[in-house]
Task: structure prediction
Amino acid sequence: MNTEEIIIKVENLSKRFGNYLAIDHISLDIPKGSFLTLLGPSGCGKTTLLRLIAGFYEPDGGTIYFEEKKLNDLPAYKRDTPLVFQEYALFPHLNVYENIAYGLKLKKTPKKEIQQRVGSMLKMFGLIGMENRFPKELSGGQQQRVAFARALVMGKNVLLMDEPLSNLDAKMRVEVRNELRALQQQFGFTAIFVTHDQDEALSISDRIAVFNKGRICQVGTPAEIYFKPKTKFVADFVGTANFVEGVVIEFDDLFIKVKSNESVITVPQKDYDVKIGEEVILVVRPECISISREDDIQRNQLDGVKGNIVKSSFLGRMIRYWVKVDDSMQWIVDDFNPKTAGHLEGQITMTLDQSKVHLIKKEDE
Ligand code: ATP
Result:
């Protein structure tokens, strides 16, 4: 039984700009209190979906529900879905307190209640002592916290965010995203977050919806998206992957054997519906491969995929190898625990962590 309460439901939604179908009949359920990330390449429709939910665009078809109430005809300012933009859009002439209090004042909320609600936001976002500063006197991260506080003070418990971390430097970006996730978990608000940064999406989300060309390709937990991508596009967009083409030569209830050129790769059966002779693609992440030198192989009689290292790159926490398997295929292998002082070279054998190899049917590519 699914006990999740759905706060926002999108049903068969579409949006055109002229002849261009920017949102192509999308359906999506967003559970209350969850952190959902819309992830995809530039121009795939993430911002458009966010703006449709916030009420800045009208859909051409389909329905948006908020707590089971149809939202389509409600103007943005009457919706319970505040949007935090990339550039935060703080009022430069208002100080931190006044920025946060702005929406409540517009709604003619009693002064005492404003003081109490803004006070709790200042506390929640670690802004005590900064009430009188103007936006230009704050760091990017602090400005962002004011923008979140200004949205959440309205008491709606939903926050829509369009690439809110993109103006921060790399280190700050990681700090603020961790902070944002901690706050979301602590206070239980529902977050819909747009990004094209896969690391950000994997680290911050309960669920990720991967977009391509106005459609959602897959919705899942970060681990599902990373280790069980439904299509080659998803696997490729979320992290680095080796795509090993092959043919099913044998299977039973436990394992599937796939022949790829000279190698046979065994994949644990995970409800894959395959036939003998079927063309498939194995998704093998670079960190799920170990490499051994030829002499180790002879000593230990290792079985695996043979190749020749053609390039390697030291990346601090790991060494990345490019291994030529045949004329048409190079594998990428990430060695996080290099056993040799220098880089490996020449002929090697690769062994795979079978449990992490994922199979995609060629027809689903
Ligand atoms: P990015 O990551 O670059 O922000 P996105 O996934 O958020 O991209 P959208 O901004 O939703 O993409 O745009 C989806 C498509 O719709 C793009 O091809 C874009 O050019 C087009 N589009 C967006 N807004 C408009 C508009 N107001 N008028 C015409 N076309 C638009």
User: Anything to note?
Assistant: The chain has a mean pLDDT of 87.
